[in-house]
């Protein structure tokens, strides 16, 4: 397969442009390029950029991508994006990819560290209202979910209770003592309706992975774990601008693509990880991945389906709520999926062959999903 | 605690050319939104391109300032701009878009903050910038 460039343009003006902010320079170049190609933003399914976040670019232009590249390695980043995009198109990860650049290098309007400082859209339209990071922003849609679907405070607390059961089987988990729903609801209020035990830990740690060609995999000392499928997406840099507070568009696109590209159905999945920065994320994950109907995941957890011995073991290391959470927990979720596929997890799921690992970035801003198996594809 | 959002310093926005019309509006007591002339989409936050169909043929207009309480959290951790627990809210505007804000003239409690309660905009002046806040309608 060969990949071609079918649209190319620069900003309408060049030189000194004090009337456009940096993100609007991206948008201006993008719109000119779309016009050059005879396309609209909705025709784009892959976004790459540097200098601004691809999340911000996608949301600004109204793109719901299924492939994202924010590789930021300086001035040659866009050469890398072209290369990654070509590989992505050949792999079927995206059909039509937009690569943008914009930089208010002279006028300095809305510029700064990819976020634009006080001039970024999140700083202008969320910053004044007293947000304290994830505890107040990740959690802000949950009351709406509770009203819409009737989820109770006790059901939300149950997420933490079940994950503590898994943590109790894991000698490396930070918190291992069993807890009850009452313990959760009696723990300190952090951001109503969230109590301390419904928020992730803050710990130190790290992790790493090495990948190689499958045909070489058997030359290594440990049981190979194969990548069966994957997906990615972004929605909005502002939680307030989610299309639906009760569901993550990025989860749906990334998860759907991962399951589709793996060629599996939900019944094939033996083990599931859902990045749990807060207790509601496994609920969103179960529904957005399609394991549960909308509004039914809290009951699914309450009924014991995700606990040890249940039909869909979930967050078997204890998760961010009980195992560890250093800030970017996705690596630890991947490590647990690998352990389960190797058969070496402290709380090993017997005979597990397929693991799905769903990660989140920002406050439902981004998502990546990996499907792994220990069976040679 | 009933009104915890007095004139304590807040992290204030720095307008850009594409958002200036919005912040000019708040200073004169107007909540301004944008509408696509081609497809009718009303959207927020401000940008000179429609997220529905990529059209640049867009206009701003003065919104009603009416909305309803879509969701919120009540933050219990100390913040330099607020006294005691305070709500960070999402307001569904009658015209469609959602905005983050604070709810004033209302106890910051789950009992007083009822989802879907009608709200109306009010503005808090901080010198060069006025911040849109919301209060129970008719309060
Ligand atoms: Zn439009």
Helix content of chain A: 25-40%
Q: Give the count of helical stretches of chain B.
A: 1
Instruction: Specify the structural class of chain B.
Output: mainly beta
If you average the pLDDT of chain B, what whole number results?
A: 94
Helix share of residues of chain B? under 10%
**What is the radius of gyration of chain A computed over CA atoms, rounded to a whole number of angstroms?**
22 Å
Q: State the shape of chain B.
A: globular
Greatest interface and its participating residue counts: A-B, 54 and 47 residues
Averaged pLDDT of chain A: 94
Order of helices and strands of chain B: HEEEEEEEE
Count of discrete structural domains of chain B? 1
CATH topology of the largest domain in chain A: Peroxisomal Thiolase, Chain A, domain 1
Low-confidence stretches of chain A: none
Q: Which band does the percent of strand residues of chain A land in? A: 5-15%
Ions and ligands: zinc ion
Number of strands of chain A: 9
């Amino acid at each position: 397969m060969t990949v071609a460039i079918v649209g190319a343009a620069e900003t309408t003006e060049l030189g000194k442009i004090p009337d456009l902010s940096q993100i609007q320079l991206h948008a201006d170049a993008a719109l000119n390029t779309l016009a050059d190609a005879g396309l609209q933003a909705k025709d784009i399914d892959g976004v790459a950029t540097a200098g601004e976040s691809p999340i911000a670019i996608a949301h600004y232009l109204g793109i719901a991508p299924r492939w994202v590249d924010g590789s930021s390695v300086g001035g040659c980043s866009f050469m890398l994006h072209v290369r990654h995009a070509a590989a992505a198109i050949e792999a079927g990860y995206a059909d039509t990819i937009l690569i943008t650049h914009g930089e208010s290098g002279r006028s300095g309007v809305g510029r700064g560290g990819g976020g634009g400082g006080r001039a970024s859209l999140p700083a202008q339209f969320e910053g004044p209202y007293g947000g304290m990071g994830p505890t107040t922003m990740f959690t802000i849609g949950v009351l709406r979910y509770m009203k819409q679907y009737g989820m109770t405070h006790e059901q939300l607390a149950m997420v933490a209770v079940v994950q503590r059961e898994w943590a109790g089987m894991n000698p490396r988990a930070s918190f291992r003592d069993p807890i009850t729903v009452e313990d959760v609801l009696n723990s300190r209020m952090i951001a109503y309706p969230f109590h301390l035990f419904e928020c992730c830990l803050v710990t130190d740690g790290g992790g790493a992975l090495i990948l190689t060609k499958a045909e070489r995999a058997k030359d290594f000392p440990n049981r190979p774990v194969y990548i069966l499928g994957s997906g990615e997406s972004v929605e909005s840099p502002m939680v307030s601008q989610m299309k639906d507070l009760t569901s993550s568009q990025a989860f749906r696109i990334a998860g759907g693509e991962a399951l589709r590209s793996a060629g599996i159905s939900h019944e094939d999945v033996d083990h599931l990880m859902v990045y749990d920065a807060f207790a509601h994320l496994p609920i969103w994950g179960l529904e957005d991945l399609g394991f549960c109907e909308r509004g039914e995941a809290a009951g699914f957890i309450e009924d014991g389906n995700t606990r040890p011995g249940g039909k869909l073991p979930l967050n078997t290391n204890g998760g961010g709520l009980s195992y560890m959470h250093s800030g970017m927990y996705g690596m630890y979720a991947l490590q647990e999926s690998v352990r389960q596929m190797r058969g070496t997890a402290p709380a090993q799921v017997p005979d597990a062959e397929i693991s799905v690992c769903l990660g989140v970035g920002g406050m439902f801003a981004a998502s990546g999903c990996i499907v792994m198996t220990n069976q040679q594809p | 605690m009933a009104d915890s959002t007095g004139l304590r310093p807040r992290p204030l926005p720095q307008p850009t050319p594409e958002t200036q019309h919005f912040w000019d509006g708040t200073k004169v007591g107007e909540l301004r939104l944008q509408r696509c002339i081609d497809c009718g989409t009303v959207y927020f936050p401000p940008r000179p391109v429609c997220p529905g169909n990529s059209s640049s043929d867009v206009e701003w207009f003065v919104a009603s300032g009416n909305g309803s309480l879509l969701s919120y959290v009540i933050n219990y951790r100390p913040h330099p701009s607020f006294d005691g627990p305070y709500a960070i809210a999402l307001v569904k505007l009658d015209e469609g878009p959602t905005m983050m804000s604070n709810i004033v003239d209302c106890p910051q409690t789950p009992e007083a903050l009822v989802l879907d309660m009608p709200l109306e905009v009010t503005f808090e002046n901080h010198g060069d910038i006025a911040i849109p806040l919301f209060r129970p309608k008719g309060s």
